[in-house]
Amino acid sequence: MKNRTKIILVVIGLLTIGAVWFICEAQEIPKGDNSNAKQSEKEMTDSLSVVSANTKIISADNDTAILVLTKQILTMLKNKKYKMLSEFIHPTLGLRFSPYAYIDTTTNLKFTAVNFFEKSKLQTILKWGNYDGSGDEILLTIEKYLEKFVYSADFLNADKTSLNKMIGTGNSLNNLETIYKNCNYTESYFAGFDEKYDGMDWCCLRLVYKKYQSKNYLIAIVHDQWTI
Predict the structure, then answer these.
(1) What CA–CA distances, in Å, run from 157 to 38, 54, 70, 75, 222?
(2) Are the C-beta atoms of 177 and 72 separated by less than 8 Å?
């Protein structure tokens, strides 16, 4: 009888230990679990590889390579991958930023790849030109400028995307094709966001490319929008 009782107690003890072990294993999060990071990395890789199905493509010469490159650049801008972006800046001509359609080669800022990345890490306020209408100086850090005058809307999923063709037109002079002759450019365009403005809140982003040693590099990023 005593032996039987001992056996029963041993069995109960083993079952209890097993149950506790199972619960702990089910609740434990392994150290160094980076499944979320891996998923985010995969999503970024996927977004770099194809042109968004939600975007209407209007191609002047069907050069899909440049459209895919624009997709990559916009993904970097959206995710603030400035180090990665700097690798796409033209090695000899640098990258110029224009807040409006009219490109002013004397006042619009231009950066080399190294200069852009180094300054993007700082909170240095730079003069980028003048606000349309008021004429006040545009004084912003690189990060704030990129938020206001580059990725000011979700251009990765724009209403329309064109290659070497202007979609957005306003009152501002547009000299892109004069300044950058024989260069390719894309335009990511939104017709507007609020019906009450009847399209007067349209905006677009133009990325200008020039080849260097058979590879396309960014030489200008031009923001455009409705101006008075």
Answers:
(1) 23, 6, 12, 10, 18
(2) no
Structure tokens at 195: 């019906």
Tell the residue number behind the tokens 């809307």, with chain if given.
Answer: 153
The size of the chain, in residues, is 228
Domains plus CATH for the chain? 35-225 (3.10.450)
Q: In angstroms, rounded to a whole number, what is the distance separating the alpha carbons of residues 164 and 189?
A: 13
CA torsion through residues 112, 220, 150, 88, sign: negative
Instruction: Return the beta strands (E) in the chain as ranges.
Output: 56-59, 95-98, 110-111, 126-130, 137-140, 160-163, 184-190, 203-212, 215-225
Residue 54 has a CB neighbour count (10 Å cut-off) of 9
Dig out the tokens for 70 from the structure.
């624009």
Do 126 and 108 touch, CB atoms closer than 8 A?
no
What does the pLDDT look like over 177-224, one tens digit per residue?
A: 999 999 999 999 999 999 888 878 899 999 999 999 989 999 999 999
pLDDT digit string, tens, across residues 17-44? 444 343 333 333 233 444 444 444 444 4
User: Can you tell me the distance from the alpha carbon of 225 to that of 192, in angstroms, rounded to the nearest whole number?
Assistant: 10
